[in-house]
Design brief:
The protein contains five helices and no strands. It is mainly alpha-helical and 93 residues long. It has one domain.
Length: 93
């Protein structure tokens, strides 16, 4: 359960950053308002599953970001790290 709290906190922090309009650096990394909204929707779906105890299918947040044109940056790195943490949690279940 402690792992779930940690990953939920990380997802919430990423959601806070995604709620802001893309800054210049994020635009260079490939972010758009639409891309941020799409990834926010994905993260909110993951949070819902985590909180309800539903299994989370194998997912790559970074791949989702890539499909929206994001190729680099802190948000991408954090998304990839969260995906790794989610995979680790699912193998412990």
């Amino acid at each position: 359960m402690n792992g779930n709290i940690n990953v939920e906190t990380r997802i919430n922090k990423l959601l806070e950053r995604l709620a802001l309009s893309p800054n210049e650096e994020e635009v260079r990394d490939g972010w758009t308002v639409e891309g941020k909204k799409a990834i926010s929707n994905l993260l909110n779906e993951i949070l819902t599953r985590l909180r309800s105890g539903e299994p989370i299918p194998p997912i790559s947040i970074a791949r989702g970001m890539d499909s929206w044109g994001v190729g680099s940056g802190d948000l991408l790195t954090e998304g990839a790290s969260i995906s790794n943490e989610l995979r680790a949690l699912s193998t412990k279940s």
